[in-house]
Predict the 3D structure of the following.
Amino acid sequence: MGHNTKTMEKIFTKHQETIAHKIEPKSQLKNWRDWKWHMRHAIKTIDEFENLTGIQFSAEEKKKFEETQDRFPLSITPYYLSLIKKENFRHDPVYKQAFLDNRELIVANSEMGDPLSEDHDSPVPGITHRYPDRVLLLVSNVCAMYCRHCTRKRKVGDRDSIPDKSQIKEGIQYIKDHPQVRDVLLSGGDPFLLSDDYLDWILTELRAIPHVQVIRIGTRTPVVLPYRITDDLVNMLKKHHPLWINTHFNHPRELTTSAREALTKLADAGIPLGNQSVLLADVNDCPRIMKDLVHKLVMNRVRPYYLYQCDLSEGLSHFRTPVGKGIEIMESLIGHTSGFAVPTYVIDAPGGGGKIPVMPNYIISWSTNKVILRNYEGVITSYQEPDKYESTICDRNCDKCNLELDVAEGDEMNAIGIEQLLSDYDDTISLIPSNNERYERRNEDGQD
Ligand SMILES: *Cc1c(COP(=O)(O)O)cnc(C)c1O
């Protein structure tokens, strides 16, 4: 399909050909490039894994793997499996993300099934409404590969949580009924495992809602099933702009010829691409690996968006790093490389508080007219603040303000949280936890 033989060779290596032939003796390049072939032949058993990789586990270890698999099922695309390097496989970043680890059965202190309370913040099935102006819509619970570090591990392979068409309609209705929702994130599972037509229907329905300004899709197919990014898919997606896509590369090894080709197609269709990595122990917890990853991403027109601290989901303890490791990585990126290659490091607050950005400290001290800062090299500098700054008391009477906001288009929402404390037009002076005893006493005494 328009590729010269040379690129074809790189896409279908000898090693991949061997794997394809073991799966199906007559398979050819055209099968390898067919995403449905990979789905049909996804590796779901330990025996198959051993057979295809040539890796042999001990009987004891296998028994334990089976227990792990009963709890958290296995699924690997032949493509992603082909990226595992057999020598030293136990430390291979692809192997670690794809294959069972018996430590998944350990439930460590403070781990939870649903650490982000996604199910609690769900007004209707399939919708998570956590932030004022955007919602998560789960459209699929199927994935090409089951990432071992999945934050929604509790739902993987769970037949009861497959969203059917009526559930998705309910979700779309919820969005229609909530004019504050201007950004819809399709997630899952992987939305790209739906058929083109079905996804087209969902996107058309969402596009018909006047207040939905942007649609985002989160998918790992460019990483684990790059052949899913077909010309037909891309031509369909193009009809629904503004559409943004976030993908999930964790290691530079994942940016193969096939993956890069998929990214090129998406970028050529005018889709802004972002990447969300998860910081994983023994996979990418290294400043050099991360720098290499972000450089490879931007060379492929993918903007590193978030670096996630690994969530407190059950079975992930062996993947978790201290927060300090993330800060160390951010220290090695900020200033040292292009600003647009630096992701925002976030901790998704357990209990559903949303993403909280964390980074090294750059402000060292402050006076009434000077800020003391340090840069990435350790140079300490001072910024002289303006002698005169006429701060206008903002009453949110934007009609009269000379900053000329088009009030009809401006965001109407009142400030919440810390923004509320900072504002002039709201007289809240403190935020108090709901179970504060001192305040409870006041209420009993009829005060306040
Ligand atoms: C991550 C997330 C979003 C989107 O957050 P952004 O910071 O805008 O990318 C929205 N809803 C939920 C529930 C999320 O977890």
Summary: The radius of gyration is 25 Å. The longest strand covers residues 302-308. The domain at 127-357 is CATH 3.20.20.70 (TIM Barrel).
